[in-house]
Amino acid sequence: MVYNRNQPDITVFFRKYLHNFQGTIDFESKEAVCAKNLVRESCYLVSDDDYINSFCSLCFAKLNKTTLPLQESDTDDKTEILTLKVSRDQQLFAVIAGKNMIKGEEELRQILVYQIISKNEFKMIVNHILDEKYYSYSKNFDFCYRDDNPEGDGNALLILSRQEILRFDFNKPKDNFTLVYRFENELQDQPDFASFNEK
Prior knowledge:
- By secondary structure, this protein is mostly beta strands.
- It has no helices and 12 strands.
- Strand 7 (106-118) and strand 8 (121-129) form a beta hairpin.
- It starts with 33 loop residues before the first strand and ends in a 17-residue tail after the last strand.
- The model has no long low-confidence stretch (mean pLDDT 83).
């Protein structure tokens, strides 16, 4: 930092250390993939088709590949991972699987929840096949952190459709969908985006 006499202000000089070097670490197509950071484990998750890869956040090396037991498709449209979410405490991650349909809509078929044991190990705790009435729900969802959640913090999911928001208590063996809110005015299309606060 230098300052000359009669200079209107201080001029700051700095050396640029960024070398802008780029290197390819993966040659596979990443169209329609989902990715989430696991800060606690110093890694990140990348989903594609019916599997989830974990990569080291420091060296970008592939650590593990987990293939999910997705429902077999009964049409030409394959069943694949549509959305991936990680819980606030980074103990769980959940996946909604289904089919990518025409006009940008999705058809939901399955909800899977995994416990994060380590960056190399995930344990499936929920594999729920959805009834046909939930096929048209949005692929966007989140973990539920409502104070009145009887299953505890983060042990339920919030999913929504054009008409309502439901809570999916994935620890319950049955009757695990509960109405949270019904919209006064039904949405015209399947919701593409949803953001839930933690209250």
